[in-house]
Amino acid sequence: SQKIEQNSEALNIQEGKTATLTCNYTNYSPAYLQWYRQDPGRGPVFLLLIRENEKEKRKERLKVTFDTTLKQSLFHITASQPADSATYLCARGEPGGYNKLIFGAGTRLAVHP
Amino acid sequence: DVKVTQSSRYLVKRTGEKVFLECVQDMDHENMFWYRQDPGLGLRLIYFSYDVKMKEKGDIPEGYSVSREKKERFSLILESASTNQTSMYLCASSRRNWETQYFGPGTRLLVL
User: CB contact, 8 Å: B31 with chain A?
Assistant: First the structure.
């Protein structure tokens, strides 16, 4: 079965540094990977999508990469701020199939002033 | 902005009770999903629906059923609640051929 693995340990970084979160997948490459942000007690919010044929995608301070050789996506937040503290979820998707997603368990990021 | 609302934020039920969780979206989305989220396990898909009256089992459908009588509304039913169904339940919706899902705020269910 297809799996998404994210580092279950929380990531603690200092404000202003770059946070890097890892998402590893098993078996064949998904058509796309998505990253969501989830704050405590709330539903996930979509951030970025990267397709299999894309190496990198950017949105403001966010950057996502997709490495099909390593079967990995990296999610970067540059110039991190305490407001970036949240849990970040990675999800793999397939075309068709009603766009079902398989989510990782998420990595909690804490940005300290 | 897409809005997905869920009927309750917190719910406490007794073992054996029938539980209804409702989800409403206001963007005419074709697809709707029900997930449960548990620590360390992430989001797991219970059921989804791609059209009115249509439903498909997800990865963990046992103990649950769903109903979609109107396009905007998707209900999750726990026929006889059990303590192992204590969890956070999240509803989501998306357009038919659009990958992004929009989530509701979640319902934290406690079964005693």
Answer: yes
Average pLDDT over every residue of A86-101: 83
Is B97's pLDDT higher than 80? no
pLDDT bucket at A96, cuts 50 / 70 / 90: low
Residue B44: list chain A partners with CB under 8 A: 103
Nearest CA in chain B to A103: B43
Report percent pLDDT > 70 for chain A. 95
- Cβ-based neighbour number of residue B11 at 10 Å: 16
Q: Cβ of B42 and A105 within 8 Å?
A: yes
CA distances A13 to A58, A110, B105, Å, are 21, 6, 27
Q: Give DSSP secondary structure letters for A62-76.
A: EEEEEETTTTEEEEE
A–B interface: beta-carbon pairs under 8 A: 58
Using CA atoms of B7, B51, A50, A31 in order, give the dihedral in degrees to the nearest 10. 140
Distance CA A23, CA A71 (A): 9
Under a CB-based contact definition with an 8 Å cutoff, are residues A50 and A30 in contact?
no
Look-up of token digits 């705020």: B105
Q: Which of A83, A100, A95, A105 is nearest to A36 (CA)?
A: A105
Q: What percent of chain A has pLDDT over 90?
A: 74
Q: How far is CA A78 from the centre of its chain?
A: 14
Please judge whether A32 and B99 are an interchain contact, meaning their C-beta atoms are less than 8 angstroms apart.
yes
* Residue A31 clears pLDDT 90, i.e. is over it: no
